[in-house]
Design a protein that fits this description.
Blueprint lengths: L7 E4 L5 H13 L4 E2 L8 H14 L2 E6 L1 H5 L4 H13 L12 E2 L12 H4 L4 E2 L7 H14 L33 E4 L3 E2 L7 H16 L5 E2 L2 H5 L8 H8 L3 E10 L2 E10 L4 E11 L3 H16 L14 H14 L4 H17 L4 H16 L5 H18 L4 H14 L6 H11 L4 H13 L3 H14 L4 H13 L3 H14 L4 H13 L3 H14 L3 H13 L3 H16 L7 H10 L2 H12 L2 H10 L1 H8 L3 H11 L2
Helix pairs in contact: 2-4, 7-10, 7-11, 11-12, 11-13, 12-13, 13-14, 13-15, 14-15, 15-16, 16-17, 17-18, 17-19, 18-19, 19-20, 19-21, 20-21, 21-22, 21-23, 22-23, 23-24, 23-25, 24-25, 25-26, 26-29
C-alpha cells in the first residue's frame, strides 16, 4: 500500500469475498487506495503484524456485515473488528473512521458487532453492484480525514497532448524515493539467440519487485523501450519517473552463466550495489532471488517472496521465456513461434500454468486478426485457458487469460468483466489488464469508465506503443476520433511504422471524415501486409471516400482468395460493404457474424461506431447491433 494513512481497509468473512471484491474494485476504479487481502496468504506473525499495522494506520475501516458474519462466532475478521473498535476509543467524536456496509437484510439491532459499529450510519448494498453514491461518500470522508489524493499511478509521458479524454499531467511530477526501473539485460553471449534469456531474466526480477507494495516499479514495456539505445541513465529515470535503475548483462556458454548487475541512484549517478554471479544454469532461480533480495535491502523495502515459481523444470522454464519473448513481438510468424515454445514447455511440465495462459492468449490474437480461423483457434484457446485457470487461479495472468478468452471468443463476452477485474485486483499495475478492461467497457457502452482505464494503462506504461495503440482502438470504438488520432500518433512517435497504431490512425481519420488521409494511411499498411483484416479496413475507407470501384475491386480480391482456400473472416468483406452502404449485404454479413461469437469482437471494435453513426436507422441493422452490444 502506497500510504496506509490515506487508504480504506476492507474487513469481511471469507464467504463474502466476492462482494468485498466488487466494493474494492469500485473504490479502486475511482482512484481510492484499498487494503484488500484476497491476493495474499494469511498466516504467521508477519501477516498478523501487517494486519495490525494497516488497521492502526488506515483512514477508514469498512466492515462488511452479512448473514455469514452473523453465523460465525469466531473468525479472523472478528479480530480485525475488535482492533478497529479499540482504535475508535482514541478518536474524537467528530472523527469519521467506521463505515459499515451490510450486503443483505441483516438488521442493525440484531447484528453481532462491536457497539461502535452500531453507532454510525450503515450503507446497504443488496444487489451486488456498488452504488456510485457510496464511492462518492468514501471520497468525501477521506477528504475530511486527510488531504485526499488519488491512488498513485505513474504519470503519462509529457509529450501526450492534453484533451478532454486525457487530463493534462501536472507540470512537475515528484519521483518516489522507493522507485526503480529494471532495464533489459545485455546479451553478451556468443550465441545471439540467447537474447530471450537475458530479457527473461530481467523481466522475472522486475515481476518479483512489482509485488512489493512499497515500491514503484516501471512497467516492462516502458523499461524495455530503451533496449539497444545509448540513453543516459539519468534520462531514463527522468522519463520513467524513478529514482533508481537496475542494469545488467548475461554471458552464457553452455551451462555456465556470468551475470553482472548494478543498481544505480539515477539522481546522482552513484552505484549503490553491484554483483557478479559465476554459476551454473541450474542455479538460475537462486540467482534471481538473490538479486531481488539485494535490491529490496538497498531500497529498504520488504520482499515478501522471491521469484514466483511456475515450474521447477529448467528446460520448461527456458521454453516459456522463449515463448514470452516472441509473444511480445505480436506478428503472425512470431505468435506461431510462441505457440510452439509454450506447447513444448507444457509437454515437459503439464502443470505449468503460465505456459497454458500464454498459449491461450496467442490463439486469441491469432483469431482476432484472422490469422487462424475460429474453428482452429477457439478449441485450442479454450483448452489452454481452462487448464491455466485450474492450475493458477491465484495468478493474475491466468485470470486475465480467462477474461481475454471470453471477450474474444464467447457469446457470453460480458462475463469477461469479473475476470479482468480479478486480474487487476491481483496486479493493479498490469497495463495489459487495464487496457483490455478499458476495451471491454467500451464494448459495454460504459464510456467514461472506459476512458479512465485506457488512460490509466498509458500512465502505468507511458513508453509502451501497445498501450497507446490500444488506447486509440478503444477511443475509436467510443467514437472519440480526435483523441484516438492523438493516441495513435503518440504510439507512432514511440515506435515509427508501428502497424497497430497506423491502422487505428486510419480508422480515426475515417471517423473524422478525413477519408483521403485515412485511405493513404491504410494503403501504407496494406503495402506491408495484404492480410484480409487490413484489406477490409482499406475497402471501408475507399467506400467512404467515394472510390466505389476500388472498394469493389478489394471485395472481389477477398472473394477470389476465399475461393482458393484462404481463410477470409466474414467481417473483412463486411467492412467494405459498410463503406459502400450496401444495406442488403450488410444485413447478410451481420446475420452471419451474430452466429459466430469469435468474430463478434472484431466487428464491435472496428465497425461498431460506424454502424451506430449511419446505419442503425435500418431495423435489421439495429437489431444486430443490440445482439452484438446489448444496447
Amino acid at each position: 500500500m502506497t500510504d496506509p494513512s490515506k487508504a480504506v481497509f476492507l474487513s469481511y468473512a471469507s464467504e463474502d469475498a466476492e462482494a468485498a471484491l466488487n466494493i474494492c474494485t469500485a473504490l479502486r476504479t475511482s482512484g481510492i487506495e484499498v487494503w484488500f487481502d484476497q491476493s495474499e496468504l494469511r498466516g504467521g506473525d508477519t501477516w498478523d503484524q501487517k494486519i495490525r499495522r494497516e488497521i492502526r494506520d488506515c483512514a477508514l475501516f469498512v466492515p462488511i456485515i452479512s448473514a455469514n458474519t452473523q453465523a460465525r462466532t469466531e473468525g479472523y475478521f472478528r479480530l480485525e473488528w475488535r482492533l478497529a473498535d479499540q482504535r475508535t476509543h482514541l478518536m474524537g467524536k467528530s472523527r469519521a473512521f467506521l463505515v459499515p456496509v451490510c450486503i443483505d437484510d441483516t438488521r442493525d439491532a440484531d447484528a453481532d458487532i462491536p457497539d461502535s459499529f452500531g453507532a454510525v450510519q450503515w450503507t446497504r448494498i443488496i444487489r451486488g453492484e456498488t452504488p456510485h453514491g457510496f464511492v462518492e461518500r468514501i471520497s468525501r470522508l477521506l477528504t475530511a480525514v486527510v488531504p485526499y489524493r488519488p491512488m498513485a499511478v505513474r504519470p503519462a509521458s509529457s509529450s501526450v497532448s492534453p484533451s478532454p479524454d486525457r487530463p493534462a499531467p501536472p507540470a512537475e511530477v515528484a519521483t518516489p524515493e522507493k522507485s526503480i526501473a529494471v532495464l533489459p539485460f545485455s546479451n553478451l553471449s556468443a550465441d545471439k539467440d540467447n537474447e530471450y534469456f537475458s530479457d527473461g531474466l530481467a523481466e522475472e526480477i522486475l515481476s518479483a519487485l512489482s509485488q512489493v507494495e512499497e515500491l514503484s516499479v516501471a512497467a516492462r514495456s516502458s523499461s524495455f523501450s530503451f533496449k539497444d539505445k545509448a540513453t543516459d541513465v539519468s534520462e531514463i529515470a527522468r522519463r520513467l519517473h524513478v529514482a533508481h535503475v537496475l542494469e545488467g548483462s548475461v554471458r552464457r556458454a553452455g551451462e555456465r552463466l556470468r551475470i553482472s548487475v548494478q543498481l544505480i541512484d539515477a539522481r546522482n549517478g552513484f552505484q549503490l550495489w553491484s554483483e557478479r554471479y559465476d554459476r551454473k544454469m541450474e542455479d538460475i532461480f537462486e540467482i534471481q532471488d538473490e538479486i531481488a533480495r539485494a535490491i529490496a535491502e538497498r531500497l529498504r523495502v520488504t520482499l515478501a517472496a522471491g521469484i514466483r515459481r511456475g515450474t521447477e523444470n529448467l528446460e520448461a522454464y527456458e521454453l516459456y521465456l522463449r515463448g514470452r519473448h516472441y509473444w511480445h513481438e505480436r506478428s503472425p510468424a512470431t505468435l506461431r513461434m510462441a505457440v510452439q515454445y509454450f506447447e513444448q514447455g507444457i509437454a515437459i511440465d503439464p502443470g505449468y500454468a503460465l505456459a497454458h495462459a500464454g498459449l491461450a492468449d496467442c490463439y486469441g490474437i491469432l483469431n482476432f486478426y484472422g490469422w487462424l480461423p475460429a474453428s482452429v483457434a477457439q478449441p485450442k484457446a479454450q483448452a489452454a485457458m481452462a487448464r491455466a485457470v485450474a492450475l493458477g487461479s491465484s495468478l493474475w495472468e491466468c485470470n486475465f487469460s480467462k477474461g481475454f478468452y471470453l471477450f474474444y471468443f464467447d457469446q457470453a463476452w460480458r462475463e469477461a468483466e469479473s475476470h479482468f477485474r480479478k486480474a487487476l485486483l491481483l496486479n493493479p499495475r498490469s497495463s495489459l489488464a487495464c487496457t483490455y478492461y478499458g476495451l471491454w467497457l467500451a464494448s459495454a457502452g460504459r464510456d467514461q469508465e472506459s476512458v479512465e482505464f485506457l488512460s490509466r494503462a498509458c500512465e502505468l506504461d507511458p513508453l509502451a506503443p501497445l498501450a497507446h495503440g490500444l488506447n486509440a482502438a478503444g477511443l475509436c470504438a467510443l467514437g472519440r476520433f480526435d483523441a484516438a488520432e492523438r493516441a495513435a500518433l503518440h504510439a507512432l512517435e514511440l515506435q515509427p511504422g508501428y502497424g497497430l497504431a497506423s491502422w487505428w490512425l486510419g480508422v480515426a481519420y475515417y471517423g473524422q471524415r478525413r477519408y483521403a488521409e485515412g485511405v493513404r494511411t491504410l494503403e501504407q499498411v496494406v503495402a506491408l501486409s495484404r492480410a484480409p483484416f487490413f484489406v477490409g479496413l482499406l475497402g471501408l475507407g475507399y467506400g467512404y471516400a467515394g472510390r466505389i470501384e476500388d472498394a469493389r475491386s478489394l471485395l472481389r480480391e477477398l472473394e477470389d482468395r476465399g475461393s482458393r482456400g484462404e481463410h477470409i473472416p466474414i467481417w473483412a468483406p463486411l467492412a467494405i460493404q459498410v463503406g459502400l452502404a450496401d444495406i442488403p449485404a450488410i444485413r447478410l454479413g451481420l446475420r452471419a457474424v451474430t452466429a459466430l461469437p469469435a468474430e463478434q469482437y472484431t466487428v464491435r471494435a472496428t465497425l461498431g461506431c460506424f454502424l451506430r453513426e449511419t446505419l442503425r436507422t435500418d431495423p435489421e441493422v439495429d437489431r444486430a447491433h443490440r445482439e452484438l452490444f446489448g444496447w
